[in-house]
Design goal:
The structure is a single chain. With 373 residues, this protein is of the alpha+beta class. The protein has two domains: 38-208, 3-Layer(aba) Sandwich (Beta-lactamase), CATH 3.40.710.10; 266-372, D-Ala-D-Ala carboxypeptidase, C-terminal domain (Peptidoglycan synthesis regulatory factor (PBP3), Domain 2). Helices cover 29% and strands 31% of the residues. The protein is built from nine helices and 18 strands. The protein has helices at 49-61, 75-81, 100-110, 113-124, 127-140, 163-176, 178-181, 245-261, 356-372; strands spanning 2-7, 21-26, 32-36, 70-72, 97-99, 188-191, 194-197, 209-217, 221-230, 233-242, 263-269, 274-281, 287-291, 296-301, 308-315, 318-319, 327-335, 338-347. Strands 1-15-17-18-13-12-16 form a seven-stranded mixed beta sheet. It starts with a strand and ends with a helix. 43% of the residues are buried.
């Protein structure tokens, strides 16, 4: 049976947004600052290009490709993503050979569909094969829901993502590929004498934004994955379900600015400090102290601190014997109803097997408690 010991009092999340799905985290710790229907699968639109580029960045980091490698624009890439397609494009000519570095900037800065398809066909033989690699790579990164059917995010049956997983993907790209992440802050890109601006509206706002991607579908509305770095802190957020591009820009700005201004990093416990207790069955002690193996820091709301609660959770009563240092539970920190952080808890001392008499008493207690459960 799981036990939950609480510290603090809960209250509702106070931030309101018109976005239907939202997920926002602190970049350093991964602490969740805000969540709203974040696990709901929705069509990705151009947000799928984050996964496209992760596959590319990973292949370059592994040494399989170099920035000066060239890929040839096929007729398929030209027709689906070129000037006549009506979508985002870098206006690549059919059968032209383009450096991978230029294609990467075309995808990131201009959201170019022709660049995506050219990369996919060049690396995997076909866009379908590349999409399989995208989904496989997502699973390797721990993204268990998102499924990709193409490299562009153009409508395709079964192609779905969640705002939670896109936020985690954005953070991963920042952590793993800093030399490529900087491209997301690039305001414009001129290729083949064609000048185009970055489509991310956050970059023009004075909030410290330096990424990452926008998208739109008829089914799920306007969406964005954004990141802001300011005063030594960084946050990532993904939002979907806005009705207009103007609403998307405004809601994203408000959320990210609120995330930066409304939380402070606080230390709850020192390393090794007792966090709570857990009851023990059949031991020479009735309870055991629990502690964390590292300092416990949290991001606490500056206003309405009572929204943050801490919960000691363990599957108990714990059965003796228990060796000191064994992980026996976790500390769960919540902001309103959202689980913000989790940290493992360990036995602060050893507990031996109790006497026959004490074990008999514990058995009677457990039977009595069992009738109440």
């Amino acid at each position: 049976m799981a036990f939950c010991l609480s510290v603090g009092s809960a209250s509702a999340q106070l931030f309101e947004t018109k976005a239907e799905q939202v997920y926002m985290i602190d970049a350093e710790t991964g602490a969740v600052l805000f969540s709203k229907d974040a696990d709901k699968p929705v069509p990705p639109a151009s947000l799928a290009k984050l996964m496209t580029m992760e596959v590319v960045f990973n292949a370059i980091k592994a040494g399989r490709y170099g920035l000066d490698d060239t890929f040839v624009v096929s007729e398929n890439a030209w027709r689906k993503g070129g000037a006549g397609s009506g979508g985002s494009t870098m206006f690549a000519k059919v059968k032209s050979a383009i450096r991978l570095e230029d294609l990467m900037q075309g995808v990131v800065v201009q959201s170019a569909n022709d660049a995506c398809i050219t990369i996919a066909e060049g690396m995997a033989g076909s866009e379908e094969n590349f999409a399989l690699q995208m989904t496989e790579r997502a699973r390797q990164l721990g993204l268990q829901t998102s499924v990709f059917k193409n490299s562009t995010g153009l409508p395709a049956e079964g192609q779905l993502v969640t705002m939670k997983e896109l936020t985690l993907l954005g953070r991963h790209i920042w952590q793993s590929y800093p030399e490529f992440y900087r491209i997301y802050s690039q305001r414009d890109f001129t290729w083949n004498k064609i000048f185009q601006r970055n489509r991310n509206p956050l970059l023009a706002m004075d909030i410290g934004a330096d990424g990452m991607k926008t998208g739109f579908t008829e089914d799920s509305g306007y969406a964005i994955v954004g990141s802001v770095s300011r005063d030594g802190r960084r946050i990532f957020a993904a939002m979907s379900g806005m009705k207009t591009d103007k609403e998307r820009a405004e809601e994203a700005r408000k959320l990210l600015d609120w995330g930066m201004r409304s939380f402070e990093k606080r230390q709850l416990f020192e390393r090794g400090e007792v966090v709570g207790k857990a009851s023990v069955y059949g031991g020479d002690k009735p309870a055991i102290d629990l502690r964390a193996d590292s300092p416990v820091f949290v991001f606490s709301p500056i206003v309405n601190r009572d929204r943050m609660t801490a919960h000691v959770i363990y599957d108990g009563p714990l059965s003796a014997p228990i060796e000191q240092g064994t992980q026996v539970g976790r500390l769960e920190v919540r902001i309103g109803d959202t689980v913000s952080q989790e940290q493992p808890l360990f036995a602060a001392e050893s507990v031996g097997v109790g006497s026959l008499h004490s074990r008999a008493l514990d058995a009677v207690k457990e039977i009595a408690v069992g009738w109440l459960r």
